[in-house]
Amino acid sequence: VRVTIEAADASSTYPDLTFSLNGSSYILSSGGTITLPYPIYAGDLSVTVPAFLSGDFKLKASAKSIDGSSESIIDNIPLNFTIGAVAQGSDVLIDSAGTTITEATGLVPVNISINPKDTDGSEEVGTVTLFVYGNGLDSAPSFISTNGSEIKFTASSELVDGNLVNGYGLQLDESFYQISDSAGVKSVNITGNIKTPQYFDGDITVKAEAVTLEVQDSSKSKIDEASQTFTVEGISDGIDADSFSVSGTTILGSQSVVLSSIIKALSPIDSDESLELTLTLSSEFIDIDGSSGFYDTSSSQFLTDPVTLSGTQSQITSFLNSIEIKTSD
To answer: How confident is the model at residue 267, as a pLDDT?
Structure first.
């Protein structure tokens, strides 16, 4: 007995199909025929199609029994099967920064590549959503495309490693895509900059989420994502001149004056920066050891001139409220 398999329609074109029978493989090429050994029992024969291939396959089998010069043929036995389409998704990659990012510009370079895994062109990238988050990122950043178009992120929350994280999201439309076509496979590249809020420094994480769709049935989709963390290096922005206020005062012998009554206000331009304030008494001031000079009321001790105060704005304010200048007769 000889069993042959071929396409039901001679004009049909299929990629190579691999039939497996009792540990042996048989390749059915387009327009060809394979002959299988007998006997074949239920469950013995299987077929493997190339990766990512889907659709209807219509084949036919013929069985011929030969006894001497006598032949008996059972022809046109339908051998049909369907491979349902499943979205394979895409490989998503976010490049790391090639240069130092500083607070001065606040521009985080973004280069995202999205390549469908299915190479027969039956899938395409549908939507791309960006999500950014980081400590101290207290207002929405913007995405600036290479052509200068700018769009704001909006506040949103997403699960990151099982934890709900507050950040900012943005769904990009196709005007931000650069699409390249290679043998029917459409890859997407997104380049631009994320503009961080003024005075932001620290780590910012960018996550790109791509939805890949079956072209013929968009209800079949797969979501893939990738993340990259960038560091925005801080720079000193200095003291806010408009908020720096001092005033003079007159004190008599044996009197004292608290520093906060002289230095009325002091704050950095960037609220997350520390301050350092150095105070010294003029040469005209008569400093009598142990009875005049800078005096810390919180510790009940005189301080060595010059006095350097370091810390956050609130810490500096606390120091100014607790340190006074004492005079003696």
So the answer is: 72
* CA 46 – CA 42 distance, rounded (Å): 10
Task: Give residue-wise pLDDT tens across range 270-286.
Answer: 666 777 888 888 776 76
Question: How many other β-carbons are positioned within 10 Å of the β-carbon of residue 303?
Answer: 15
Chain mean pLDDT for the chain: 84
Which contacts qualify for 25-29: CB closer than 8 Å, 24 or more apart? 28/59
Confidence of residue 187 (pLDDT cuts 50, 70, 90): very high
Given CA atoms 169, 175, 177, 183 in this order, what sign does their dihedral have?
positive
Q: Is there a contact between 85 and 122 (Cβ–Cβ < 8 Å)?
A: yes
Q: Distance between CA atoms of 140 and 197, rounded to whole angstroms?
A: 7
Q: For residues 7 and 31, is the Cβ–Cβ distance under 8 A? A: yes
Between the two ends of the chain, the Cα-to-Cα distance in Å is: 127
Q: CB neighbours (10 Å) of residue 152?
A: 12
Position 256 pLDDT exceeds 90: no
Residues 6+ apart with CB under 8 A from 223: 89, 209, 210, 211, 212
Pick from 60, 80, 74, 57: which is nearest to 8 by CA?
60
Q: What is the largest CA-CA distance in the chain?
A: 139
pLDDT tens digit sequence for 139-154: 999 999 988 889 999 9
